[in-house]
Amino acid sequence: MSGNGIERWSRADRAKAAAKLMAGWIALLWALEAVDLATGHALDPYGVTPRESAELAHIVPSAFLHFGFGHVAANSVPLLVLGFLAALGGIRRFLAVVALIVVAGGLGVWLFSPSGTVTAGASGLVFGLFGYLVARALVERRPLEAVVGLLVAAVWGGTMLTGLAPAQGVSWQGHLFGLLAGVAAAFALRRRHARAAALTP
Q1: Which of 19, 128, 167, 169 can pair with 101 through a Cys bridge, CB separation 3.0 to 4.6 Å?
Q2: Does 61 score more than 60 pLDDT?
Q3: Are 90 and 155 in contact (CB under 8 A)?
Q4: Angstrom distance (rounded) from CA 169 to CA 141
């Protein structure tokens, strides 16, 4: 406890919390896909179909659903790593970032995806977390976050650029709007010291 009665987590505490959160998140994605398979793909319709008003309710659940275990596997490692790195900055802040990315990315899919398609998967969130971590390095201007941003850009930058190109069976719309939402989140949720520095002449 600090002198003012507010509990402050150590870096180890933050790392443990972030690891537990993301491990549980990934386990949930696999469990949902197992349920989907066991029920004859009963969850697939909860993806987003564009420009139908009732489908707006599917924006959040669509980020947790996938079309097969291969689809889940493709998203699991980047989501685990990028989510862990983002969650190290604080769980509440991380959840706010995720909410912004999921909603904005889902709206982009709803507005701009081709008619008659159904989109689901965590890839939009993966792209959003990538954008958030890279943009945060520029916004926060902290040495550690700058290093994290550079490493993330070096490891996943090429893959992210490829994922923005239109391709059959891939929602580049979700990728693009997820990425943009992640960048926006880095600015909207930047820490107070970064805001103060931006206002200093």
Answers
A1: 128
A2: yes
A3: no
A4: 38
